[in-house]
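Is this the right way to post structure tokens for a design question? Let me know if I should format differently. Anyway, here goes:
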């Protein structure tokens, strides 16, 4: 890598400028014999970025897997530019600034706080709207620092990190695909706040402590249409050839269909789980097929995005270019509807659909993730034993 610019190594504080808020995150610049790398930090998550190039006084930081990049001018200990999310048709660009040697994510201006948010909360997004949705918040607080996530019926909000400041809560996440910001006021056991997703979405959320709240069963959200008990499709292999399912290659095998997209962080969490699981169980008659619905009609671009996923997660199972995301429900017409990404379809040795799981509770959810892994393993082993 040609280093036409010297980047200050160590911790940086970055901000994305939203219309009426500032979304901060941290990253670390490392320098080694092969050039610069960056680690984006969200609580316990460290995202390695190694596609970094320079031109004149500018740096180009291509985010891993996702179709987005940061373009910025470098001046002394600062970067100024934009984060560009190419997977979006609108609101692609958000102003980006970063300063070296600043470790705070959110800057606290109040010394003391009596708030302790370490608990489980019942959450409603857009609570006064007919389209309101339920979630569970899991917060862990040490001093002023707060880590946590939100569980929904279609997945989780991954690794959120922030602080309490007086009577206020601030949390954020940036992973190259999504930029999340949560701001809220805390009043006893109740929280009232705003949620921002990039510069294109903003909504109210409220939360109340509730240790017993549960979400609807993820195995009973997405269903086959009446009279259906099998799945069939014709999609493209990454070399452009047709792939029809079912076929003899998968006869008498337990097969998982992963409805996914390279733009979907929860899908990437599932892929990170499925890839080594497949390697362990393939010899026992287990198969996985990834049906990747992308945000493009361009087959060549879709294949490029899917291949980045394949390389990043060392995927050895078959990945298919299943078409544009907007046509996913139409192309999987045996389903009533695709309710979320990922959606995982479990097929037994006889080709019968035995279960459909909506969403993915990833590693940021702690015990929920561990339970998912245990349940997945138990169910696959049951199907293999039949």
């Amino acid at each position: 890598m040609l280093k036409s610019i010297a980047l200050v190594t160590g911790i940086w504080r970055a901000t994305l400028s939203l219309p009426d808020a500032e979304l901060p995150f941290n990253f670390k610049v490392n320098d080694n014999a092969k050039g610069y790398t960056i680690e984006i930090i969200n609580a316990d998550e460290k995202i390695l970025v190694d596609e970094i190039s320079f031109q004149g006084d500018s740096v180009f930081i291509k985010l891993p897997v996702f179709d987005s990049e940061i373009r910025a001018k470098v001046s002394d200990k600062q970067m100024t530019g934009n984060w560009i999310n190419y997977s979006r048709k609108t609101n692609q660009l958000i102003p980006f600034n970063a300063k070296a040697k600043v470790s705070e994510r959110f800057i606290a201006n109040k010394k003391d706080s009596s708030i302790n948010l370490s608990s489980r909360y019942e959450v409603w997004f857009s609570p006064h709207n007919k389209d309101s949705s339920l979630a569970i918040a899991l917060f862990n607080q040490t001093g002023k620092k707060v880590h946590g996530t939100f569980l929904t019926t279609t997945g989780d909000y991954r690794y959120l990190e922030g602080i309490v400041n007086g009577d206020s809560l601030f949390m954020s996440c940036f992973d190259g695909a999504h930029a999340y910001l949560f701001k809220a006021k805390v009043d006893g056991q109740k929280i009232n706040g705003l949620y921002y997703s990039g510069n294109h979405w903003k909504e109210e959320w409220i939360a109340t402590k509730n240790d017993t709240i549960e979400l609807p069963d993820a195995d009973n959200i997405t269903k086959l249409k009446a009279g259906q008990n099998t799945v069939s499709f014709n999609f493209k292999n990454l070399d452009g050839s047709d792939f029809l399912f079912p076929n003899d290659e998968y006869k008498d095998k337990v097969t998982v269909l992963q409805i996914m997209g390279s733009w979907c962080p929860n899908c990437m969490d599932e892929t990170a789980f499925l890839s080594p699981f497949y390697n362990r169980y393939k010899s026992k008659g287990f198969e996985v097929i990834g049906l990747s619905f992308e945000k493009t009609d361009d087959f060549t671009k879709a294949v490029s995005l899917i291949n980045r996923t394949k390389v990043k997660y060392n995927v050895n199972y078959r990945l298919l270019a299943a078409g544009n995301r907007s046509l996913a429900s139409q192309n999987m017409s045996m389903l009533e509807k695709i309710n979320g990404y990922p959606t995982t379809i479990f097929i037994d040795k006889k080709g019968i659909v035995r279960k459909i799981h909506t969403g993915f509770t990833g590693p940021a959810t702690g015990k929920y993730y561990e339970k998912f892994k245990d349940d997945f393993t138990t169910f696959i082993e049951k199907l293999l034993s039949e």
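Format looks fine. Someone answered above. Worth noting: Residues 119-209 form a domain with the Lipocalin fold (CATH 2.40.128.120). The CA atoms of residues 62 and 69 lie 4 Å apart.
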